[in-house]
Design a protein that fits this description.
- InterPro entries: RraA/RraA-like, RraA/RraA-like_sf.
- It comes from Dyadobacter sandarakinus.
- Residues 1-20 form the signal peptide.
- This protein is elongated.
- A hairpin with a 2-residue loop joins strand 12 and strand 13.
- It is 41% helix and 18% strand.
- By secondary structure, the protein is an alpha/beta fold.
- It has two domains: 51-235, 3-Layer(bba) Sandwich (Glucose Oxidase, domain 1); 240-305, no CATH class.
- The chain has helices spanning 2-20, 27-33, 51-57, 62-71, 105-117, 129-132, 156-166, 179-183, 237-263, 268-272, 277-288, 298-305; strands at residues 78-79, 83-84, 91-102, 138-143, 170-173, 175-176, 190-192, 194-195, 203-208, 212-214, 217-219, 224-228, 231-235.
């Protein structure tokens, strides 16, 4: 038994050592991080939530998304108090993570050597490496540990490259420079903790596509982000579709309830508690005759409602 335990420990140490010798996890390691996801994946192993769900997510309120995640036990997925370049922007996308740390020369040399073995570009700074992996629909999310002066992860040159590859913006727990230039990139936006005219100094990239912390939130590669002026929420890929339909139905229920309250048909107490059979029937009739386009298909709505307790 002792020999078996020792051998298992050695295997674990070797596995950790092998993982440490790369800038990014392997596709199999990324699949292990996100094993609850059963759908399509990108070539790097990250979950690939559909473009259709990303589009629908844009219409979900932060409170609705937050509430669904809380009910499922995910209490640490929101971060607020951002500075935005364009405050009226909404962004959704599939997360690519990057971790930055204060510069340590021996570790920086190791990261550069690992990057060289992985075929990463050796000219310029390592802060370009996360950009090189971006595909359309990806959002570059970086933990810059809140560093503002000398912590600017991108300027307008890298911003143009990011948008060309991803058609998205960035979310940095850190800072950017060249905000005037970044603001001129049509379609691009940045959620940051500040901006500064300085260049990046005394900080380094440590890894790409590993779990990171963004303020109050734990973020995994392949999460889906909903970013608005009110904050950012990072949604595990396997929960996104259910979160969208749940939030859409909640919005319909709220719309119906507000309408009936304005009409004086029901009291606030009747709307704010479990609905009576009469109210349920009224809601279903209202939905079936909805004066506009429903955000989901009728089948999706029927499947969702059939097992729900109002």
């Amino acid at each position: 038994m002792i020999k078996k335990t020792f051998f298992a420990g050695m295997v674990a140490c070797c596995t950790l050592g092998a993982q440490a010798q790369s800038v990014s996890p392997t596709p199999d390691q990324l699949k292990a991080y996100t094993s609850a996801w059963k759908g399509e994946r990108s070539a790097d192993g990250r979950p690939r939530v559909s473009d259709a769900i990303l589009a629908r997510l844009k219409n979900i309120s932060m409170e609705e998304a937050w509430g669904v995640l809380r009910n499922k036990g995910y209490n640490n997925q929101f971060e607020g108090d951002w500075q935005l370049i364009h405050t009226d922007s909404v962004m959704t996308g599939r997360v690519v993570t990057a971790q930055y740390v204060p510069l340590r020369p021996d570790l920086a040399d190791l990261v550069k050597e690992m990057g060289k073995k992985e075929g990463r570009v050796q000219t310029g700074g390592t802060n370009s490496w996360p950009i090189d992996v971006l595909k359309e629909g990806d959002v570059y999310v970086a933990d810059g540990y809140g560093k503002i002066a000398d912590g600017t992860l991108i300027g307008d040159n890298l911003g143009n490259s990011i948008y060309a590859k991803s058609k998205r913006g960035v979310i940095f727990y850190g800072s950017v420079r060249d905000v005037e230039g970044l603001s001129e990139i049509k379609g691009f936006n940045a959620w940051t903790k500040g901006n500064d005219p300085s260049y990046i100094q005394q900080m380094m990239l440590s890894n790409i596509n590993t779990p990171i912390r963004i303020g109050r939130a734990t973020v995994l590669p392949g999460d889906v982000v909903l970013a608005k002026k009110y904050g950012t929420i990072f949604i595990p890929a396997h929960l996104v579709e259910d979160l969208v339909i749940t939030s859409e139905v909640t919005a319909l229920r709220d719309e119906f309830g507000h309408l009936r309250l304005r009409e004086g048909k029901y009291t606030p107490g009747e709307i704010d508690t479990k609905w009576s059979d009469a109210i349920q029937k009224d809601f279903l009739n209202w939905v079936n005759n909805y004066p506009g386009k429903l955000p989901m298909t009728k089948k999706e709505l029927d499947d969702y409602l059939k097992d729900r307790n109002y």
